């Protein structure tokens, strides 16, 4: 009885080149021929994030969010890769249409005719507006990210770029008064100066865990974030 021996040949497959970052998370049929203008000259950090498949991105949990805020590492908050791509497209369009992000925020989102505060910090509601964050970070969907915009300045320490003890107390007192009575779990933070995307209008961030939707609608006046409106 004869035995037939077959020798398997090793086939070397051509190595697949990695996709350029500007094609990642884009359906093949919509791949641009070259890098879109809104993604040119962005930082290496943003290129790295946008070049990460959404499937490989892990959303931050509520305990992780609380930890980052408690150790003042808000620089670790990033947007989901596909959302960061959309954010870049959005801000690129804004600058063309409105001249700057600040003009859009003041005139369209805040609709403030004057930036002159009526009184001292947190004295008058007219000097404050609470909106949903237009482009929230990659966080658990149960976490709602709000931005509190103010006409008045909240003093920062010149050396550290962080809140002074006085401004931190002013913000915390306001957060406790407005949010803590309605939401069990929350955190707030004010971005370092180096991390702010909008420098000219004072603001700080509040994150609420599983807040009541009616309460949200009330304090934001039914606001809808730009991420839900932008195509």
From TrEMBL:
Pfam families documented for this protein: DUF3605
GO process annotations (BP): N-acetylglucosamine metabolic process
CC per GO annotation: cytoplasm
InterPro entries: DUF3605
Name of protein: N-acetylglucosamine-induced protein 1
Organism name: Didymella heteroderae
């Amino acid at each position: 009885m004869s035995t037939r021996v077959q020798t398997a040949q090793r086939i070397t497959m051509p190595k697949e080149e990695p996709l350029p970052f500007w094609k990642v998370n884009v359906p093949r049929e919509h791949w641009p021929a070259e890098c879109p203008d809104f993604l040119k000259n962005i930082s290496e950090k943003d290129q790295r994030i946008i070049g990460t498949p959404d499937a490989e991105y892990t959303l931050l949990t509520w305990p992780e969010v609380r930890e980052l805020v408690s150790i003042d590492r808000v620089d670790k908050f990033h947007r989901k890769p596909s959302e960061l791509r959309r954010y870049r497209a959005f801000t690129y369009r804004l600058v063309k249409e409105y001249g700057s992000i600040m003009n859009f925020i003041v005139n369209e989102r805040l609709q403030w005719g004057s930036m002159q505060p009526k009184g001292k910090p947190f004295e008058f509601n007219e000097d404050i507006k609470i909106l949903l964050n237009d482009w929230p970070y990659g966080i658990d969907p149960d976490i709602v990210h709000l931005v509190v915009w103010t006409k008045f300045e909240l003093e920062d320490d010149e050396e550290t770029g962080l809140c002074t003890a006085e401004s931190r107390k002013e913000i915390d007192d306001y957060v406790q008064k407005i949010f803590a009575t309605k939401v069990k779990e929350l955190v707030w933070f004010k971005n370092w100066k180096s991390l702010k995307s909008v420098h000219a209008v004072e603001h700080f961030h509040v994150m609420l865990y599983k807040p009541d939707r009616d309460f949200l609608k009330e304090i934001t006046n039914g606001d809808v974030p730009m991420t839900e409106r932008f195509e």
